[in-house]
Amino acid sequence: MYVVQDHHTYEQLIDITPSENVMVDEYLQNHTYTRLGGKADFYVTPETYEQVQAIVELSIREHIPFTLLGNGSNLIVKDGGIRGIVLNLGRLASIHREGMQIVAQSGARIIDASQYALSHSLTGLEFACGIPGSVGGALFMNAGAYGGEIKDVLESAVVVDAEGNLLKLSADDLDLEYRSSNIPEKGYIVLEATFSMEDGKYEDIKAVMDDLTFKRESKQPLEYPSCGSVFKRPPGYFAGKLIQDSKLQGKQIGGAQVSLKHAGFIINLDGASATEYIHLIHFVQDTVKEKFGVTLEREVKIIGEDPIK
């Protein structure tokens, strides 16, 4: 079990990145869309690729557990928090154009990359205009919506591997499939993505994005904290329809509730704990399996430790 070496680890971290980028015992509920999660021993927000590499090398050298958080949109952090170093790349958020390509750092929101494409009359990222995750997170899970996915437009990515090496990989190297990639199993940290775009008309691109935004806002419970769509689409079915037909909308465990607006969402209605939220996910899975014989596979990732009882 990892024992926190507060002062020693802290001193090493602030040798790598300024002290304002290193927070000790930081509640992760402050950094997740669900507003759930216990403390991180060290919550670190580096400013450069070299700092990311150095932090990875530190974690290897000192045997410190290491977790990449992303922007916390498709994630549940357990109430016991996360030991060791939690890395957030939110300070790496630049987006720029190179000819017919858009280069976005991993901490940028994929929504912002979509809006940037619109501002340059480039088409291809319209589907991402309502996806709340970061660019890095979008690659991690090959995010998609409304018939489009990252796989359709990704040209290449810059990553740090599990040993701290900086690599440039093609999209094919990432094995992008429906809501998955090889990024987690390889231990890659995405630093930058390059998207191949096509020329379009501003008015046409904006019309598509406005339509998708309307559909999202009218159907999804965006007024409450949530992790977004909880379950992957099972072959031949829709997860939300199965949950709705199981009469589970409005089902509540503690402060967590199956949304009345969209059955595929579980919302933090009233100060839910991560434990309550996870219990409700399991209850939905068990009920749908019992009623329809269909296994709902989670799209949301659950990380961290259970609370000490």
From TrEMBL:
Q: Which SUPFAM superfamilies match?
A: FAD-binding/transporter-associated domain-like (SSF56176), Uridine diphospho-N-Acetylenolpyruvylglucosamine reductase, MurB, C-terminal domain (SSF56194)
Q: Which cofactors must be present for this protein to function?
A: FAD
Q: Report keywords, A-Z.
A: Cell cycle, Cell division, Cell shape, Cell wall biogenesis/degradation, Cytoplasm, FAD, Flavoprotein, NADP, Oxidoreductase, Peptidoglycan synthesis
**Superkingdom, taxonomy of origin:** Bacteria
| A Pfam family this chain is assigned to | FAD_binding_4
**Biological process according to GO:** cell division; cell wall organization; peptidoglycan biosynthetic process; regulation of cell shape
Keyword Metal-binding set for record: no
Top EC class per UniProt? oxidoreductase
Which Gene3D superfamilies has this protein been placed in? 3.30.465.10, UDP-N-acetylenolpyruvoylglucosamine reductase, C-terminal domain, Uridine Diphospho-n-acetylenolpyruvylglucosamine Reductase, domain 2
Q: What GO cellular component term, any one, is given?
A: cytosol
MF terms in GO: FAD binding; UDP-N-acetylmuramate dehydrogenase activity
Q: Where in the cell is it found?
A: Cytoplasm
Which NCBIfam families does this chain map to? murB, PRK13905.1
Please report which protein family the annotation says this sequence is part of: Belongs to the MurB family.
- Output this protein's name: UDP-N-acetylenolpyruvoylglucosamine reductase
Q: Which organism is it from?
A: Lentibacillus halodurans
- Gene, per the UniProt record: murB
